[in-house]
Amino acid sequence: MTSSRTPVREKAKYFCKHLKKENPDYNYLRELFRHIRKNLNIVIKSAKENKLPYIPTEEEINKYYNTVWESRNMKHIVIIKTLLYTGVRVSELVNIKISDINLDNCQIKVVQGKGKKDRIVPFPNAFKETLAVHIENIKKNDAKYLFESSWKKAYSDRGIRKILMKYTKAAGIDHSISPHTLRHSCATHLLEASGDLRAVQEFLGHEDISTTQIYTNMDFEHLNKVYKNSHPRA
């Protein structure tokens, strides 16, 4: 039978009384309790392991991109390229306005992204011409957003997902190629190429760097090949 425990608040006061003269900081306390756990043989049970995101194989990316290209649907091609090159979330993609595009500097301003924060994301110079042609075409219809439906309204998240799913099925790929899948591909390529976790965090708009750190567990050499093969002009 387990003996009764001292109330946590009372025990905390006991520790504070003895630790106050040590003037401890966070790192000191963290190490202290790490040793306490070790001495008491306390095993920490992880609530849930971070599941590594699915990254398409080189073959899947090639099949998918070729299927999109063969459609000759300029709008869909630009949608896929924008997701791959910028890594924006689908909720951010549908809210990009023409006025948010800076073709001269190859930048897109993401307004009110996740956490209601703005950020600037770059895109390759090789994508500038394609994007410029798309913008000129939609300006003829007085478009406001970078991607609008036939009703002259911004696409919904669901609308973009349906487009991507259509090409997943057409390409005969078992795994779903979703907007977030393309975001993962972009993120892993950037981290492998730069090795700068903080810069990739800012690029993706992650509030917590631990979210970005999940990509450090990926096979970067393989993923880099996947990304390059998905963009012949990258």
Explain this structure:
The chain has 234 residues and is mainly alpha-helical. The protein has two domains: 8-39, no CATH class; 58-230, Orthogonal Bundle (hpI Integrase, Chain A), CATH 1.10.443. Helix content is 53%, strand content 4%. The chain contains eleven helices and three strands; from the N terminus they run αααααβββαααααα. It has helices spanning 8-19, 26-39, 58-70, 74-86, 90-93, 125-139, 157-170, 179-194, 197-204, 209-213, 220-230; strands spanning 101-102, 107-110, 119-122. The chain has a three-stranded antiparallel sheet. A hairpin with an 8-residue loop joins strand 2 (107-110) and strand 3 (119-122). Helix 4 packs across helix 6 (125-139) and helix 4 (74-86) packs across helix 8. The chain is elongated and about 75 Å long. Residues 219-224 and 230-234 have low confidence and may be disordered.
Secondary structure elements and their pairing?
Elements: H1 8-19, H2 26-39, H3 58-70, H4 74-86, H5 90-93, E1 101-102, E2 107-110, E3 119-122, H6 125-139, H7 157-170, H8 179-194, H9 197-204, H10 209-213, H11 220-230
Antiparallel strand pairs: 1-2, 2-3
Helix pairs in contact: 3-11, 4-6, 4-8, 8-11
